Amino acid sequence: MATLNTLVLDNGAHSIKALWTAQPDHPPAVFRNAISRAKADRRRNYIADELEKDCQDYGGLVFKIPFERGILTNWDAQKTIWDRVLGPKCLNVDAPSTRLLLTEPIFNLPNVQDQYDQMVLEEYDFGSYAKCPECTLVIDTGFSFTHVVPLLHGAILSSGVRRIDVGGKLLTNHLKELVSFRQWYMMDQTSVMEKAKEDCCFVTEEWKSDWERASSASNDTSIVRTYVLPDFVPGSKNKLGYVRHHDARPPSPPLPASTDQQQQQQQGDAKGKGPAVEEEQLLQMSNERFAVPEVLFNPSTIDLNQAGLPETIAHSIASLPTEVQGLFWANISCIGGNAAFPGFVGRLTTELRALAPTEYAVHVSASPSPTLSAVQAAPAALEQSAPIQAAFLTRAEYQEGGLNASRRKHAGMYWSPGRVAQELGEGGT
To answer: For residue range 334-387, what is the model confidence (pLDDT) as tens digits?
Structure first.
């Protein structure tokens, strides 16, 4: 039997990351997991990569997303997006000759798992496929949720899995509310505020001093950032806005117009065309820069009755057998877009050191591209992880055993407490 090409598809709620394992050195392809529509042209839908390629006006974008609160609920939208991503204009996948490694959320609902099986093996006819957890490392802080997932020999320790209902979507919405209340109304500018969050926000390790500097009348340039909003003009290069460097001077005012130019401008104003030169719309990002990511560490700041990320990690590790707790304290890795905030790893390390037993070393790491790290690590994990290799379900096995065959195959991805005890030498005596 010929060896099948393996495609890794990280089907995130915000974006889809794809990588062929035969080309691990190539950068992953990234597609927006949404069907978008611009306010200026409501007759045109932008699917996956079309948003970045074809959309000229990012003002007031409306998104139809397949995921709701981390669960895939809109399968019609997801199929439309997959058709585009897997089709000839993007990845050009020959499904029958391809082995698919697909991510899914932790503890996915059974009916959603069944729908994955039917879609992949019946609708697209992939040669074989395996579902692996969305997080192959410890912390996955993504678009919908933040998961803490301990792994042992490539499989999940179910008893230690924890979830915080804070993700990138909530943080973006929180920033929109803060900015709309204090400065400009931005509730309908999701893409713009998402970009502002990624470019401006950071995790503070000195909350009190940073808050005082942000609140001072001197506009401390170490805290305050000026974000230039897009001009929302079709064809403009400034589609989502940008951060102006604090040393940069604002644009010079236009030179006095000649008499003829003044007459032309007055005629334009009389016809409703407006002045020839438009002023920039500026957004002053002050304490919003660190108040938004703070929700990850203190959800109570938005009245969310949950433990913060450091406490959740400590609870997760404490629920595991004593023999392996030191291993997990010393090997904490972060993936997902929120881990890209500057200061995230440093703040997490500091707070975990205070919570961990003194006899254990604490080490937290994140890759330079946390959003892509899961799909980039998949080729190596595929070679080294026996549970993932054993989890691949061929189309012939699915046709013979149906959904039960899929459940049997993927059961090995999770460790039960009894299996953990037996592996550690505590069971069977």
So the answer is: 988 899 999 999 999 999 999 999 999 898 988 788 888 778 777 766 666 666
Tokens representing residue 39 in the block: 């306010």
What's residue 294's pLDDT?
95
Indicate the SS3 state at residue 119: helix
**Which residue type occupies 61?**
L
Tell me how many degrees the CA angle 19-24-29 measures, rounded to the nearest 5: 30
Q: What is the pLDDT of residues 15-24, one digit of tens each?
A: 999 988 888 7
**251 versus 41: which is more confidently predicted?**
41
Bridge partners (DSSP) listed for residue 99:
6, 128
CA 254/CA 271 separation, integer angstroms: 22
- Output the pTM of the full model: 0.73
CB 4 within 8 A of CB 21: no
220 has a pLDDT exceeding 90 = no
22: tokens are 């035969």
Would you give the DSSP letter of residue 103? E
Q: How far apart are the first and last CA of the chain?
A: 44
Is the separation of the CB atoms in 226 and 281 below 8 Å? no
Sheet (strand 162-164) strand order: 162-164, 146-148, 139-141, 332-335, 364-366
Query: Residue 29: which of 49, 53, 46, 6 has the closest Cα?
Result: 49
Radius of gyration over alpha carbons of the chain, in Å?
A: 25
Neighbours of 154 (CB within 10 A): 18
Which 8-state DSSP code applies to residue 121? Answer: I
Stretch 214-234: mean pLDDT, rounded?
Answer: 78
Stretch 91-95: mean pLDDT: 91
Contact between 176 and 191 under an 8 Å Cβ cutoff? The reply is no
Phi then psi for residue 373, to 5 deg, are -65, -35
**Of 267, 70, 238, residue with least CA distance to 169:** 70
Report the distance separating Cα 293 and Cα 172, nearest Å: 10
**Residues above pLDDT 70, as percent of the chain:** 80
3-state class percentages of the chain: helix first, strand second, coil last, to nearest 5: 40, 20, 40
Rounded to whole angstroms, how far apart are CA atoms 408 and 401? 10
Please, what's the b/e burial string for 64-96 (b: 16 or more CB within 10 A of its CB; e: otherwise)?
Answer: ebbbeebebeebebbebbbebbbeeebbebebe
Q: How far is CA 309 from the centre of its chain?
A: 16
